[in-house]
Model the fold of this input.
Amino acid sequence: MEQPREELRLGYDVDEIAIRFSNYFHLLRELVHLSCGWLALAPQFETKYALGDHLHDDARAISKIRRRLYELRHPSDYPGAPAEELSALLDRLAGAPTLAAYIELAYGEAKPALLRAFRIHLDHLDPVSDEPSLRLLTQLVERQARHVSELGPAGMAGGGVEDLGALPIHLKAEPRALRLMAPLVEPARDEFVEVTPEGDPFLARELYINDPDENHVPVEPEEQRHFFHALMDAELCAAELMARNSHENPEMPWDFHVDMARQTWDEMRHAKLHSLLMPKELGCRWGDYPVGFSYFRSVYARDLLGRLALFNSTSEQKAMWRHSHRRKTLVERGQKQIAQVFDYLLADEVPHVHNGARWGSYLCGGDEAAYKRKVRELREGLDETGAPSGEPRAA
Ligand SMILES: [Fe+2]
Ligand SMILES: [Fe+2]
Done:
């Protein structure tokens, strides 16, 4: 078989490639950090969903870019610090006063600049000697183009930096510090969703108890409507909590941020699943009942260790039993579609619970037994639904 003719091109030299990837790293790291901060403040479900999806894509991109830097600058993956022009863009992103201003800058200027730089890079690289970059950038171009088409302003041409990859990098400088947003007061919901102090009064505590004799599985249409509506809100709260865990703790190891990004996206997908299930199977929709934030507040008020212990290692850990119990009961009653939702939720919950043990132990100096003691201690203040006494729980 005749082979296609390939010509030697020899594009960028190794140092230029490493500089390009370092610039991509800095922009993506800032975007993940800030999108994690803004996600809870996005009222519109579709916008919140897109932010969660994109920040997970970008977190995975950063892991791959760091790996490429490690290969090029062996044995260091240190990306240095961004020079003045990129720092100015990052400062503007970090200083965006509103969600709308952030989205306009992130999706109207920063991501289009990144996309442009990826394309320039692809046009100039040597496809043989630098095939690892070719494969990586081909994947990243497709993702950034999707992000810009989903949240970017219509008819956007993008301005700003001509070729972001060619900007200088200060290799001897200190790492760039990430700016923290103000702590959350409460998450934002679509304007048609009523937020009340007590949430949906229809929900009975028996729905959330982990005792096989006392737990009540929602089987009637009316209780299923209320239950899945509250569950959708609980998924949003979970995504918002994980995103804030990442945003508010930038000093944690990079893998922590990847785990939080993944869980954020999982919880957003769960919320979307319920938003589709409600009109299709249950005859209700998002916004039909009130929601409340008292449980969210009680977890958010803790430090990272307390949040992991109470949310991942307690609430999600106990929800695993309830999901499997609900699934079994619904299968027995022939409600297969609804039972299958719990099957998916249960599968995703396993790594979420592991996130608690992994990073909780890390925060206890790698001592898993010390973390377990911390979890036990915090559980003592909880009622039989796994919520701090008096706080309603909805998962
Ligand atoms: Fe979930
Ligand atoms: Fe979860």
Remarks:
- Residues 293 and 346 are 23 Å apart (CA to CA).
